[in-house]
């Protein structure tokens, strides 16, 4: 019920068009890159999917992060506008339920964007390379890994947006975190666990032992941020 309510509220905002347009823009990155520089990539001996991820994923991940930040800000801007949050407190609905419903919708939206990007990568391989037997499995693994690594960013950014009544503050915090993430070296595992740095990781550039460690880190971070949000909501309720 809460998820349906949150979805109805978002239909009146630019949330869905923003994600659809952002997904198309991100999906055009590998296509545009291949259109203008295909001769650089087609002669490489590496697997086609690895070539495309290495050449395009940093930009695609950056656009995905922008969508996460903007999406979370839009969600809570509608709550704080015209004191809607105070009105919601008067209803028999838990704020934690609202939070996790928003988190769920934001997660599904990013998965939809990743699906559009996967279709774009499949088109590039079909048009400029040749399909091979393991292609579909490798693509699903790569996109699935990207979706898993995005979860801490999703829940953290949703939490940041829930704290800030002014949308521009949460937007600024999110953008600052994004640019901090771009300066973190991938070789440092501890720093790479920074939630906004995780989406830049790819399955192709990560050792098999590190993959399990990253997934464990994602689970721990998601649990910690979820518990922190529950504590924050209880404390805020007492002081309102």
TrEMBL record:
<feature type="transmembrane region" description="Helical">
    <location>
        <begin position="56"/>
        <end position="78"/>
    </location>
</feature>
<protein>
    <submittedName>
        <fullName>ABC transporter permease</fullName>
    </submittedName>
</protein>
<keyword id="KW-0812">Transmembrane</keyword>
<feature type="transmembrane region" description="Helical">
    <location>
        <begin position="99"/>
        <end position="123"/>
    </location>
</feature>
<keyword id="KW-1133">Transmembrane helix</keyword>
<feature type="transmembrane region" description="Helical">
    <location>
        <begin position="211"/>
        <end position="233"/>
    </location>
</feature>
<feature type="transmembrane region" description="Helical">
    <location>
        <begin position="171"/>
        <end position="191"/>
    </location>
</feature>
<keyword id="KW-0472">Membrane</keyword>
<feature type="transmembrane region" description="Helical">
    <location>
        <begin position="15"/>
        <end position="36"/>
    </location>
</feature>
<dbReference type="Pfam" id="PF12730">
    <property type="entry name" value="ABC2_membrane_4"/>
</dbReference>
<feature type="transmembrane region" description="Helical">
    <location>
        <begin position="143"/>
        <end position="164"/>
    </location>
</feature>
């Amino acid at each position: 019920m809460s998820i349906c309510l949150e979805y109805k509220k978002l239909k009146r905002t630019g949330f869905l068009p923003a994600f659809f347009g952002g997904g198309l823009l991100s999906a055009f990155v590998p296509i545009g890159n291949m259109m203008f520089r295909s001769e650089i990539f087609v002669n490489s001996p590496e697997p086609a999917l690895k070539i495309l991820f290495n050449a395009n994923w940093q930009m695609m991940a950056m656009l995905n992060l922008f969508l996460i930040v903007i999406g979370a800000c839009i969600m809570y801007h509608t709550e704080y506008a015209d004191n809607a949050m105070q009105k919601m407190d008067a209803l028999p609905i838990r704020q934690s339920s609202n939070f996790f419903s928003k988190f769920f919708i934001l997660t599904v939206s990013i998965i939809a964007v990743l699906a559009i990007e996967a279709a774009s990568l499949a088109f590039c391989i079909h048009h400029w390379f040749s399909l091979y037997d393991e292609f579909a499995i490798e693509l699903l693994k790569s996109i699935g890994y990207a979706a898993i690594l995005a979860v801490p960013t999703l829940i953290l950014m949703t939490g940041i947006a829930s704290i800030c009544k002014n949308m521009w503050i949460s937007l600024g915090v999110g953008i600052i975190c994004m640019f901090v993430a771009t300066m973190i070296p991938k070789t440092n595992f501890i720093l790479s666990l920074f939630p906004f740095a995780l989406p830049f990781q790819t399955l192709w550039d990560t050792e098999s032992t590190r993959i399990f460690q990253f997934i464990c880190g994602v689970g721990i971070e998601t649990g910690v941020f979820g518990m922190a949000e529950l504590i924050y909501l209880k404390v805020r309720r007492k002081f309102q």
